[in-house]
Write a structure and sequence with these properties.
Largest sheet: 8 strands, mixed
Strand order of the largest sheet: 6-5-4-3-2-1-7-8
Order of helices and strands: HEHEHEHEHHEHEHHEEHH
Length: 319
């Protein structure tokens, strides 16, 4: 894989500082049942990195002593970590809202037959990746058979009330472009998704989030190999909107890797650009207090233009 970090470290991106911490985003490991073309984590079935129980307990301790409102679980496929359900249940007992970043096909994997029921019982918000409502487009990006398996997963979630009015069970979908382009307007695409998925497949959901493909890991390597990296970066920079800066996710979120080390965001985690506090030393979730992070400078690079381009984007969609 071609490294993008040397092309991203030197930057003129504006200096930004952290605001109040509200979300703990945790990568439970890079193991996944899919190998997606756009994946900024380079996740797949052969990855071995998985968060162990001691680190999970340290996360729970951090949640207990902090005022974190949301635990955002990602991967790989976070559900493939054997401690996933233990962590979800512990967080819910503390009154923390839990988000599961689900690829939908995991709901059909052996041993996960009761996953949809578990998520519903714990009122976990599901953010499910579905890069298009058309089969050919989905499978071009994610592999043969993924579209129908994804629809099957959506139907399972719908059967427990997810995406249904007044159920209290939130199901949001995540879209990302097929290539080196910016996503279309989120509100307009959401209308298309809802109409097409209901008419074609009889499935429903709450909201659509659009995500910019970040020029790192698997997608960044593809851009370099095809000679498209510089043009894509220029597109991001030309589309920069300073009005998006106050709402970028890194101002209210920290990202934790499978070993427990802390980063300003999931993208910095993949680039191994750790969050820096006093002393400029790499910090672990077991040794940090939330008040240390107030007004802390955020580590930035050229990839940050991806979050501020056009309508902007975060893990909760357009800004």
């Amino acid at each position: 894989m071609l490294a993008t970090l040397p092309l991203l470290q030197e930057t003129d991106f504006p200096t930004i500082q952290r605001a109040q911490l509200e979300t703990l985003q945790v990568n439970l490991g890079y193991l996944c049942n899919q190998t997606c073309q756009h994946c900024h984590v380079d996740a797949g079935p052969k990855r071995k990195e998985q968060m162990e129980i001691d680190t999970v307990d340290q996360l729970i301790s951090f949640l207990h002593k902090s005022n974190i409102k949301t635990l955002d679980l990602t991967g790989g496929a976070p559900e493939m970590n054997e401690n996933f359900r233990y962590l979800v249940e512990a967080a819910r007992k503390l009154g923390v809202h839990v988000i599961d970043r689900c690829n939908l096909t995991i709901l059909n994997e052996p041993g996960q037959e009761d996953l949809a029921e578990f998520l519903a019982a714990n009122q976990v918000e599901v953010v499910a990746s579905l890069p298009c409502y058309l089969k050919d487009n989905v499978e071009a990006q994610r592999g043969k058979g993924v579209y129908q398996s994804s629809i099957s997963g959506l139907r399972k979630l719908n059967s427990f009330g997810y995406g249904k009015p007044n159920s209290g069970l939130v199901l949001n979908l995540m879209y990302n472009p097929q290539g080196a382009t910016l996503p279309p307007p989120q509100s307009e695409l959401e209308v298309d998704y809802k109409r097409e998925l209901q008419q074609r497949e009889g499935v429903s959901f709450n909201k659509l989030f659009v995500l910019v493909n970040m020029p790192i890991m698997r997608f960044g390597s593809m851009l370099i190999s095809k000679g498209m990296f510089n043009n894509y970066m220029q597109l991001l920079k030309d589309s920069y909107q300073g009005s998006n800066l106050p709402d970028v996710m890194c101002r209210s979120l920290i990202s934790v890797d499978w070993r427990g080390y802390i980063y300003d965001c999931d993208f910095n985690q993949m680039l191994n650009l750790p969050l820096m506090t006093k002393g400029n030393t790499k910090r672990h979730i077991s040794e940090i207090a939330t008040d240390e992070l107030n007004a802390n400078p955020i580590v930035t690079g050229e990839h940050c233009y991806g979050c501020t381009a056009g309508q902007g984007c975060s893990c909760s969609g357009a800004l």
